[in-house]
Amino acid sequence: MTQNIRRVRKAVLPVAGFGTRVLPATKTIPKEMLPVVDRPALHYVVSEAIEAGIEHIIFVTGRNKGAIEDYFDSAYELEDQLAKRGKDDILKNVMSTITEPGSMSFVRQQAAKGLGHAIWCARDVVGDEPFAILLPDVLVKAERGCLAQMMDAYNEVGGNIIAVDAIPEERVNSYGVIAPVDGAQRDGNLIQMSGMVEKPPIGEAPSNLKITGRYILQPDVMGILKHQAAGAGGEIQLTDAMATLMNVQPFHAFEYEGQDYDCGSKLGYFEAVAAYAAAHPEIGGPARAIMREMSGAG
Ligand code: G1P
User: Fold this and answer.
1) 285 three-state secondary structure
2) Residues with CB under 6 A from ligand 1
3) Cβ 184 vs Cβ 171: under 8 Å
């Protein structure tokens, strides 16, 4: 690692959203806690952060999200019961959700003002060091986690890195989209960028490379977010602040290996459950057989 590349120790996970696209399921359960086979979607995202070397997770949370704090805490009665009944395998799984004491922080976003505002709410806990952001709506299924792949690239080039993936043109208006530098040399999975825009109208997007929901950013973005005006959808957009930061700091897009699923939508959630069930060590075989049977039945 080059000397002036500072290590990324903290990750911000914004979890304050209502989950309106999957109501009424999310009326009483935070959307991040919806199960994907045998664990909440959020568990996969936290595991991805830890695999990448993250030591401290900062949740930007809101009302009715208490289940998230409890999930990563010890559940003494449950653990005691499982131990007494000799259910060691299950106990091991339950204990795996408990993180190092003091390695999680929770800050509140009182009003839904957008992703940029949610990230800014974490500024004091992030402090003056580079940090990662993982949007927990998005699961990325990959052999090596998406953030770990990005971290490898970061350790080479430093600066700011965002994960991108090609999508069909007709979906660009649902995402942040990057503008790659014309004719720039590709450096492995890294792409040089000249700009980015949040939710461009179809036909006006600078490329078909969408921002996937994994970021490594320098802390300077917080100062920009503080004064960031509302953008697309009337919300304070992280993409707009990053576009400003790009003018003064190195910024790369990173095309990761893996498949992403948008668990905030009904179809994306269904697809995630199917993909994770098919790959599950315990139920993968029968799950694939069921899916084959269902598709055969038309
Ligand atoms: C957010 C970001 C967007 C990104 C997307 C990934 O949008 O603002 O740039 O492409 O997540 O899922 P949202 O899905 O919150 O509208």
Assistant:
1) helix
2) 115, 135, 137-138, 175-176, 198, 210-213, 237-239
3) no
Give the separation between CA 122 and CA 124, rounded to whole angstroms: 6
> Please, are residues 53 and 145 in contact by the beta-carbon 8 Å criterion?
no
Q: Could you tell me the distance, in angstroms and rounded to a whole number, from the CA of residue 176 to the centre of ligand 1?
A: 6
Question: How many angstroms separate the alpha carbon of residue 138 from the centre of ligand 1?
Answer: 9
Q: Other C-beta atoms within 10 Å of 119: how many?
A: 25
DSSP reduced 3-state for 276: helix
Q: Please say whether the beta carbons of 71 and 27 come within 8 A.
A: no
- Which atom from ligand 1 is nearest to the alpha carbon of 239? 9
Q: What is the CA radius of gyration of the chain?
A: 20
Residue 78 to residue 80: CA distance in whole angstroms: 5
Contact 206, 200 (CB under 8 A): yes
What are 145's two structure tokens? 């986690």
pLDDT tens sequence for the chain (298 residues): 455 899 999 999 999 988 888 889 888 899 999 999 999 999 999 999 999 999 999 999 998 888 999 999 888 899 999 999 999 989 988 888 888 889 999 999 999 899 999 999 999 999 999 999 999 999 999 999 999 999 999 999 999 999 999 999 999 999 999 999 887 777 789 999 999 999 999 999 999 999 999 999 999 999 999 999 999 999 999 999 999 999 999 999 999 999 999 998 999 999 999 999 999 999 999 999 999 999 886 5
User: What's the CATH number for 10-264?
Assistant: 3.90.550.10
Residue extents of the structural domains in the chain: 10-264
